[in-house]
Write a structure and sequence with these properties.
GO terms for molecular function: mRNA binding; translation elongation factor activity. By secondary structure, the protein is mostly beta strands. It has 11 helices and 54 strands.
Length: about 950
């Protein structure tokens, strides 16, 4: 074997032998080190061992001294050494060492113990009899200065001192104090270009790459593609001795190979270690990021912040690494100066045109409006928005950024869907994010991948505040809501509808300063340009009693007596005969024309007919009538999906004449089917004779049941047959015979009803008898009362008109739990300013008289109340304000909001707003099973 090896070397040239031994030893070193660079060169250890003390060096002696005087004794020994230096017997000691923190002991370096004894002689603060030599092997450790290494805890960030991971960021996984080792989680540096296993090339097997691989998460597929062999150990994947999990390398290192002090990771490094955005957000709250200095370029204006030339300003001429050459702006300094980059910062003044070179708004340009402490506020050339950036992130420039109007499949001002219930409009495009103004008026910043889809609103339609049809592209006015002009001297705000989504409209206005002119409004706050604006206070709203079913088991109202339901308050009919527009079958209702005395009457005779428009911009169009009144008609066109309002005189029935003209009336008709009082017998009129259904009947009609609510009682509930009677003969709630006109005594008399408003309730003339029936039925014995103030307004829920007007009412149906509020409809101004209605968690608006204009028209939430003031939090500005009671207004709730009644008998009632109809809102009371009530919207306040 040796002979063959010797012959092998004999046949080699010098170059071949050199190459052979280099490859051989390189392969052995690589195999021994496991493919890593953890070990240091051996010559470093040899050099360090040569510096250790030996027997030929002076010894180290321990001398005890008086505690607290260690440094003074060292100085005294130094002065004594200098004093004896030029004498015949100089001191033979070499040095004196005082170790910080070591009390009562000093070290003296000398060859012999006698030399130390001579040096400390006659010094009172030194114990001359206790001199101890330090063993040679312990000399280094005794004087070693150990740095106070902060205790490493799992989760803290460190950096490595050596190996291929030098200066890389790592996270502590666990610490083994006994073995002085720490296990770190770090981003691996794996060379994916070098083949492994069977795919390894024999020619370059021993050639080792000196290039350090880039940090990248472990990729199992790439490892398999280059022939790497991996094994599994629980959650870990083992490759070439390293343990990998979720792409990270977990490896042990000595404790002294990590840097724990002053580690400030950059944002990019932190993003690698966090798996979700929430993890990164939490990490940023507890981690100090790496501070970046200013990046200077020739032409930048700078200001010196440190050194002897502090506050000196100048212009950058050239940059060489950390050295910056500037030309000072000073009359006495005419030569260029070279300064360090960390000693200066960029300087800007208002009016400079700059470009953002890094950060969130990178690439944008704008004009500087003002400069604050370490902050530059500029207005963007593209969006005209105010941008707040750091001075180090901007640079002077003369050109204007062109910007981009699309990112991927999304463009500027597109309507997009963020989730199944939220849409918004893109109001800003960035490199990797977009800003979206949601339908709730909030701005969110998301990545394009987080957007579900783009929506089209070209064919979407909605109704404005006056029930006009609006669609994208229409010019509208903002007449209500937070974006409306509150002062009368201001013009109404106008804009063009960009997108419609359900009841929200995204509007563009050049006068709106935010979000590129885009803002969002409710469609009920808009008015189509050119349409007539009607005061909402004059619009008759739907009466709550229309929705109430006849309840034969309801308690009699004390102010209603036994009046016919058709003649109850405001001409309401619990029998369901009142029309949607407010009409009642009695006195102006009935037939094809329905409507109350003072309300809009609905013409149902022409609904469903085909008509042709004879005048106006839609002249010649055909359509079908969807609704009609005496003067107007609502037509759905056949040729386009649009419904318009037209004057009755401008519409002609197909194959017939014009539809215009007064509606037919049933007044004076004999017989009149809509008036039940002239009939004999009459039902429900307790004040006339004969009377059926009153409480004075014995036995009462249908009162023979036992028990019967209010029927067979003797005396009957609230009836005139009680002996003795508990009510006066003037009590309108009692069926006295003869009956006195209740209108003279009852506060809820017929004058206040809609019937009285039509001219009958307070007339100064009487009504003659008419048989069998006229507009006014005959009463007995008071056939003609002069003056007569109207029919009795007494009403009983037990009584029923005979016959019932035709309706959809089913007498077998149960009554709905629906009640109408009978309290006030307007809150007095003095009550609002008193602040009695203010409660915590109520939403409020601030009057424009409030001095702080930043919170005008903003919606706030009451946080606390004290001393006539409220602490109000405003979400849009993310700040609190202290506002007095006299500056606060309740915020009206919308459909779906939680609300509270703040005035009237029902003060404190809470519930959910089911719907809003004009000036009234339907409230589902909290804590009750389906109880629904109607309140005036002015009495409700939104709960946030």
């Amino acid at each position: 074997m040796q002979e063959r090896r010797r012959n092998k070397y004999a046949d080699m040239t010098e170059e071949e032998m050199e190459k052979y031994f280099q490859e051989r030893h390189a392969q052995e070193v690589y195999t021994r080190r496991g493919g890593d660079l953890d070990d240091q060169p051996y010559d470093d250890d040899i050099t360090q061992n040569g510096l250790l003390p030996s027997t030929k060096d002076p010894n180290l002696w321990i001398v005890k001294v008086r505690m607290g005087e260690e440094k003074q004794i060292a100085l005294q020994l130094m002065r004594k050494y200098l004093a004896f230096q030029n004498t015949e017997e100089p001191l033979q000691i070499k040095s004196v060492v005082v170790k910080e923190g070591l009390k009562g002991i000093i070290y003296i370096e000398a060859f012999k113990k006698s030399h130390v004894a001579t040096a400390i002689e006659k010094i009172a603060a030194i114990n001359q009899y206790q001199i101890t030599m330090v063993p040679i092997g312990e000399m280094v450790d005794s004087l070693k200065v150990v740095k106070d290494i902060p205790s490493l805890k799992p989760g803290t960030y460190v950096r490595l001192k050596r190996t291929m991971y030098k200066d890389d960021l790592a996270q502590v996984d666990w610490v083994d104090i006994a073995q002085n080792r720490v296990n770190l989680k770090l981003v691996p540096r794996v060379d994916y270009t070098r083949m492994r296993g069977a795919l390894r090339n024999p020619d370059d097997r021993a050639v080792r790459s000196k290039r350090r691989p880039q940090p990248k998460l472990f990729d199992l597929e790439k490892i398999k593609s280059i022939g790497g062999e991996v094994t599994n150990d629980g959650d870990f994947v083992i490759f070439e001795g390293g343990h990998y999990r979720r792409g990270f390398l977990y490896k042990e290192f000595p404790m002294n190979s990590v840097i724990a002090d002053g580690v400030k990771p950059s944002l990019t490094e932190l993003e690698r270690f966090q798996e979700t955005a929430d993890d990164l957000r939490k990490e940023l709250e507890s981690t100090t990021l790496k501070e970046k200095g200013h990046s200077f370029a020739p032409g930048d204006n700078i200001e010196v912040t440190d050194g002897e030339l502090v506050n000196l300003r100048g212009t950058v001429q050239s940059v060489d690494g950390d050295k910056v050459v500037i030309l000072p702006h000073h009359k006495d300094l005419t030569e260029p100066l070279t300064l360090n980059a960390f000693e200066m910062r960029k300087f800007f003044k208002a009016g400079d045109h700059v470009r953002v070179v890094q950060g969130r708004y990178e690439g944008d340009t704008g004009l500087i409006l003002r400069v604050e402490d370490n902050l530059v506020i500029l207005i963007s050339d593209l969006t005209m928005d105010e941008l707040k950036v750091l001075p180090k992130d901007v640079q002077l420039c003369a050109d204007v950024a062109t910007g981009v109007d699309s990112i991927g499949q999304y463009q500027y001002q597109d309507l997009v869907m963020l989730d199944k219930e939220t849409v918004g409009v893109i109001v800003r495009l960035e490199r990797e994010h977009v800003e979206v103004l949601t339908m709730h008026g909030k701005t969110v910043r998301v990545k394009p991948q987080a957007i579900q889809c783009k929506k089209e609103s070209k064919f979407a339609k909605a109704m404005d505040s006056q029930k006009n049809t609006i669609q994208a592209g229409d010019l509208v006015k903002i007449v209500d809501g937070p974006h409306a002009n509150k002062r009368d001297i201001d013009d109404e705000k106008e804009g063009v509808i960009k997108h419609l989504f359900r009841t929200w409209a995204f509007i563009y206005s050049r006068k709106h300063p935010l979000h590129g002119g885009i803002f969002v409004c409710k469609t009920r706050h808009l008015l189509l340009a050119g349409a007539k604006h009607t005061d909402t206070a004059s619009i008759q709203t739907l009466d709550a009693d229309l929705l109430r079913s006849p309840n034969p088991l309801a308690s009699p109202h004390p102010s209603n007596g036994a009046a016919t339901p058709a003649l109850s308050h405001s001409s309401r009919s619990v029998a369901g005969a009142q029309s949607v527009r407010g009409g009642a079958p009695g006195y102006g209702g009935g037939g094809p024309i329905s409507g109350g005395g003072g309300g809009v009457r609905r013409n149902t005779a022409i609904i469903g007919k085909n008509v042709r428009i004879s005048q106006g911009q839609f002249k010649g169009y055909y359509g079908i009538v969807k609704d009609a009144t005496d003067t107007t008609v609502r037509v759905e066109l056949h040729t386009m999906p649009k419904t318009i309002n037209m004057d009755m005189s401008k519409v002609v029935e197909v194959g017939g004449a014009a539809l215009g003209g007064p509606a037919p009336s049933t007044f004076g008709r004999t017989p009149n089917i809509n008036d039940a009082r002239g009939r004999t017998p009459t039902y429900g009129y307790g004040s006339q004779t004969p009377m059926y259904g009153g409480g004075a009947n014995t036995p009462m009609h249908d009162g023979g049941r036992t028990p019967h609510y209010g029927g067979g009682m003797t005396p009957a509930y609230d009836a005139g047959g009680r002996t003795p009677t508990h009510s006066s003969s003037w009590d309108p709630a009692v069926a006295n015979t003869p009956a006195h006109p209740s209108s003279s005594m009852d506060d809820d008399d017929f004058v206040s009803s809609s019937f009285g408003s039509s001219g009958f309730g307070n007339s100064g003339f009487g009504f003659p008898s008419s048989t069998p029936n006229s507009q006014r039925g005959q009463t007995t014995p008071y056939a003609s009362t002069t003056p007569k103030s109207g029919t009795s307004a007494m009403y009983s829920d037990y009584a029923a008109a005979s016959p019932y007007p035709k309706s959809n009412y089913n007498d077998s149906a149960t009554a709905s739990p629906f009640h109408s509020s009978q309290g006030p409809t307007i809150i007095p101004e003095n009550f609002l300013k008193s602040g009695e209605w203010c409660k915590v968690d109520l939403c409020v608006n601030v009057r424009r008289a409030f001095p702080d204009e930043d919170v005008h028209s903003l919606e706030g939430v009451i946080r606390s109340i004290s001393d006539g003031r409220c602490d109000v939090y405003f979400d849009e500005i993310d700040d609190d304000r202290t506002v007095g009671f006299d500056y606060l207004l309740p915020c009206k709730p919308q459909q779906g909001d939680q609300a509270r009644v703040i005035f009237g008998n029902d003060t404190g009632t809470k519930g959910s707003v089911v719907s809003v109809d004009g000036l009234e809102g339907v409230l589902r009371i909290s804590g009750s099973e389906g109880d629904i009530r109607i309140f005036s919207m002015s009495l409700l306040c939104k709960i946030c």
